[in-house]
Amino acid sequence: MPHVTGAAVRDPELARLTGLPFDDPDEVIRAAIAEASVPALLMSMVHMTGDLAILDELPGPYMLIAMDLQGAMSEPDKQVVRDRAFEVARDYRDRGCPPPFIPDEHQLRVMLDVMSAGQVTEEFVDYIAADLRFTDKDQAGPVLSSTAEQRAGFPVVVIGCGESGLLAGIKLKQAGIPFTIIDKQSGVGGTWLANRYPGCRVDIASQYYTYSFEPIDHWQHHYATQPEILQYLGDVMDRYQIGEHIRFETEVIGAAWDEATSTWQVQIRDAAGVCETLTARGLICAVGQFSNPVIPDIKGAKGFDCPSFHTADWDDSVDLAGKRVAVIGAGASGFQLVPAIAETTAHVDVYQRTAQWMAPNVNYHAPVGDGARWATRHLPYYGRWLRFVTWWPIADALNEQITIDPEWDNGGLSVSAGNHTIREVFVAWMQAFTTDEELLAKVTPKYPPMGKRTLQDDGTWLTTLQRDDVELITDGVAEITPDGVTDGAGVHRPADVLLWATGFDVNHQLGPVDIRGVGGVGLNDAWGDAAYAYLGITVNDFPNFFCMFGPGTNAVNGASLIYNSECQMRYILGCIDMVLTSGAASAMPRAEVCTDYDRRSQARLKTMVYSHPAVTSSYYKNSAGELPTLFAWRIVDYWKWTHRPNPDDYELDKP
């Protein structure tokens, strides 16, 4: 495991990522340690001292718990660690904050064994080391063999400037590849600009929902709110000076592959209606899967006389104070929205199609204290380990719990012994907030946990549903009338405002964008509602075309979409480099490679909880019951597969 040397930590940029020197007084250090994650503190002490014996002397977590930054430790044990951490940090300060200790491969295994209570096995070590910044595999890769002159002659158009489109711009700029980003919205952010409804926030911990090369220590919440994320993306755009390459308020109407010139001809239209054609060697589609809001085809939906809009098209001019509001949908957006508006509305009626599983998460709405931010900024590698604490327990560590055990039979309530344990934890959590059996029956799903998107809950949802001015309706929606909603039982409830919290059409992510490849074949036609791409990135018959957050990459296994985007962009740069160094005009995956990958992906998904027959009405599924949007494997697999393209997988078309 080649690793970053201790001397390299003196580099200001690396220090910004792994811990800045400090000379703060004792009381600042003590306050920070009191708020810090104890497992991450344990690891940071090793970096400050170079002494792994600390891990034998001090208590450690007997497991890492999803959504809990402190791990499974008793309060007295936590205090023992905090007391020692204060002494170590104070000594480190007094020694002038020398370059932190960087473990070799064996030492890292020892640290991971303590940190994860033995869960991390050999196959994960390189992948975790890269994310911790002990190696340069993520940040420096792929090593480009093409010349700067070759890359300068490979212009790229990027469709969309959400987190993945912005990332594409950063990496293209660093590689010296000219690019233009086109986005129909007025600014950076993608779904985080479009979705600005009250209560909107991320359900992946902030430290993980962050570019690995651009962490920040000033998140206001452990699970960042929409304004925080939008600010973060804007700051990153400015830091890397990407704004000058973006054309906002401009739509991509379509793009066609010109076989004669081996270029993409991209048709765009600005806000004034002026059309233009851009020529590019490469085309990156970064529109994502949450670009096209869905309003169900319900009788009378267009006949409501009062304000009505989707959460992804929030109308800031509508004041909800004192209004009777109907919210259709109790999935992720409705789950966040309803508690945020209940304090000001006169009444909220929530129309729930199916119940959602809620994961216990005491930090979901919790702010990050000043001390915790100080620890992230200054304690060596603390922030990197904190990031590990937030993702490992909910990602690859849960592989067994989301896999169907064919020998397990529990009437569709769970898919394995481990999955059933999760169910019991989730049910107990709900029971802790209400003894109302009728309400519990409404909110307890009748399908296995993890089968649909799992929501994060600190008790706010059930507390809100028990308010006198909030009602949960589970009889369906029969009709929208000019003044309200009639449910499936025939009960009519008046409404002053109708809010659609009904999600997105993830199986038709291109929307109206018409992309045509070899021979004029349309991508929307080729995909139908079963979109596919090799590694979720490249598509046969579409040369030099690349997806980000494309088909089969929805990270329902607990991964951060930003992390997956970094894997995808690393692979895309490798593809561009492959084209240039081979002297080819273009590359596209071989049809059999693309087909085989899609076949294996769908076969794997059939062994997972998402495909269980009890999981009905899931937005993951298409009309055939397939799961084209979901990623089927572990994050470590994707990380390995996207290091660099295999030329044997591609048709390289010579000019």
Automatic annotation (TrEMBL):
The EC number of this protein is 1.14.13.84
List UniProt keywords, sorted A-Z.
Monooxygenase, Oxidoreductase
User: What one GO molecular function would you report for this record?
Assistant: 4-hydroxyacetophenone monooxygenase activity
The EC class name is: oxidoreductase
Q: Which Pfam families match?
A: Pyr_redox_3 (PF13738)
Q: What is this protein called?
A: 4-hydroxyacetophenone monooxygenase
Q: Record the organism.
A: Mycolicibacterium vanbaalenii
Name of the gene this protein is made from: hapE_1
